[in-house]
């Protein structure tokens, strides 16, 4: 089982920044079997440059649930699954930090679609999500929004699964 995750944040460093949006697609290796997405009230100011990038502003998250209020969903959808993300350390570290702030230990086995793409699809000029998806003709709807980027990562991951002739991706 795989949980394909994308988040948007108030900034680039876990601990200083907070999550403003999350999307999780639980995938059984063939198809999406469950999903969750939500804006998240970061309980801190969203800088203007982040709003310009994501379109998420302070007003949008004012009445959104806090991470504590969605933690059960995040925990459930990632439990007993590989935590998959494009640049997995970024997403994972933010989520782990949010759980630490709730005095909870969060650990999952991780798979990075950047690293997998470099091995399975060598030779591309850039492995950023936008450039790689363009090269592989994967359409991204709502770029720099959690659900849009996570959905594109699902399509990328499915391509990686099909092309993985060296068994780099663990399967159940």
From TrEMBL:
Q: What does this protein do?
A: DNA polymerase III is a complex, multichain enzyme responsible for most of the replicative synthesis in bacteria. The epsilon subunit contain the editing function and is a proofreading 3'-5' exonuclease.
Checking NCBIfam families in the record gives:
dnaq
A single cellular component GO annotation = cytosol
By its UniProt entry, which InterPro entries does this protein fall under? DnaQ, Ribonucl_H, RNaseH-like_sf, RNaseH_sf
Could you cite one Gene Ontology molecular function of this protein? DNA binding
> Oligomeric state and partners?
DNA polymerase III contains a core (composed of alpha, epsilon and theta chains) that associates with a tau subunit. This core dimerizes to form the POLIII' complex. PolIII' associates with the gamma complex (composed of gamma, delta, delta', psi and chi chains) and with the beta chain to form the complete DNA polymerase III complex.
Q: Which organism is it from?
A: Persicitalea jodogahamensis
Please give the superkingdom of this protein's source.
Bacteria
Q: Where is the Exonuclease domain?
A: 1-166
This one is known as Exonuclease domain-containing protein
- Output one GO BP term: DNA replication proofreading
